[in-house]
Amino acid sequence: MADTKTPPEAAAGHAVPVPSGPVKQPRKQTRATAGSARMAALLVSPTLLVLTIVVLYPTLMALNESLYGAKGLDPETGFISATEPFVGLRNYADIFGEAGERFWNAFWNTTFFTVVTVALETLVGVAMALIMHKAFRGRGLVRAGILIPWAVPTAISGLLWRWIFNSDGIANALIGHQILWTTEGFHAKVAVIVAEVWKTAPFIGLLVLAGLQVIPKEVYEAARMDGASPPRQFWHITLPLVKPALLVAMLFRCMDALRMFDLPYILVGAQKRSVETLSMLAQNEASNVRFGPASAYSVLLFLYVFLVALAFVRLLGADLIGDVGGHTRRRKNRRILASRRTEVTA
């Protein structure tokens, strides 16, 4: 047997002090970490390049274009100027000044559509996911039928719902009243909301279904043995475990709804005050060859989407990430203390 020496303090039953200084990491581990970081940067670089081309460069170009005005008459020649005049921040000042009423109307329409559609899509999507997750005969046919609306292009969906909401369409036949859905008024907002929820609720349902399929069945069996009812199982088991997938789906839908353009444009029409969004407003300015104001609207919309996404992640995702990190650090610290005590005892 190997000759082991026991410290006198340990033999006497006294506590042996544990060194509290920083533990030096070997150089090999440092080199491995640096190599992993370089490999990670190399793998991510194509994605960063694509994002730079399709996101960063257009954003900078729109910001630069928003500082120029529309081409006007040259006082010296009497012809239209060949270049756009530099106006600085005047386009932004006009948005909050002369064109402020139209801007704020589009802003509140965009916010209203986002809040209402995402809330309804979340409720309908979760219900769809629960239905698709159940094992029953014909489940594949039901899943295909639920996912078909999401697969239909938005332009085609807008045309289909325009026929449904026509004056002599199916919607008026079902309710028994003659309503002009595609004209000005709150009913136009209702038409856009119904069509948008029908179109994109399956997207949330698909992501929630992916989260449901990774929940172990043993969790529900244990809950049933403890006497938990189905509503309590959903509230205390299903909902917390699918929360990450649900939050990701809601974040994507919020960012998409804030950029809503094609559905209200095709379903109701352009320059309709009831449904005009920020994207429609920017497109209307660009179609009238006012690229400076159009770029200013686009920059403001980009900032709005960015702030909403940042607030969404901070408010709904920070606690979850922080808790996971805190538990991980605590477990790591306990393992380090346990290994040190084992080394001293040995």
Question: What would you say this structure looks like, in words?
Answer:
The protein is flat, with a radius of gyration of 30 Å. Helix 8 (186-212) runs antiparallel to helix 11. With 346 residues, the chain is mostly helical. The chain has helices at residues 8-11, 27-65, 90-95, 100-133, 139-151, 154-164, 170-175, 186-212, 217-225, 230-241, 243-258, 262-267, 278-287, 291-345. The protein contains 14 helices and no strands. Helices cover 72% and strands 0% of the residues.
Q: Assign an overall shape.
A: flat
Would you tell me the structural class of the helices and strands? mainly alpha
Major beta-sheet overview: none
Count, helices: 14
Pattern of helices and strands: HHHHHHHHHHHHHH
From the N-terminal CA to the C-terminal CA, the straight-line distance is 15 Å
Number of strands: 0
> What is the overall pLDDT average?
81
- Unreliable parts: 9-13, 318-330
What portion of residues belong to β-strands?
under 5%
Which properties best describe this structure?
single chain; 346 residues; mainly alpha; 14 helices; 0% strand
Short summary:
This protein is mostly helical. The chain has 14 helices and no strands.
Architecture blueprint of SSEs:
Layout: H1 8-11, H2 27-65, H3 90-95, H4 100-133, H5 139-151, H6 154-164, H7 170-175, H8 186-212, H9 217-225, H10 230-241, H11 243-258, H12 262-267, H13 278-287, H14 291-345
Helix pairs in contact: 2-14, 4-8, 4-11, 5-8, 8-11, 11-14, 13-14
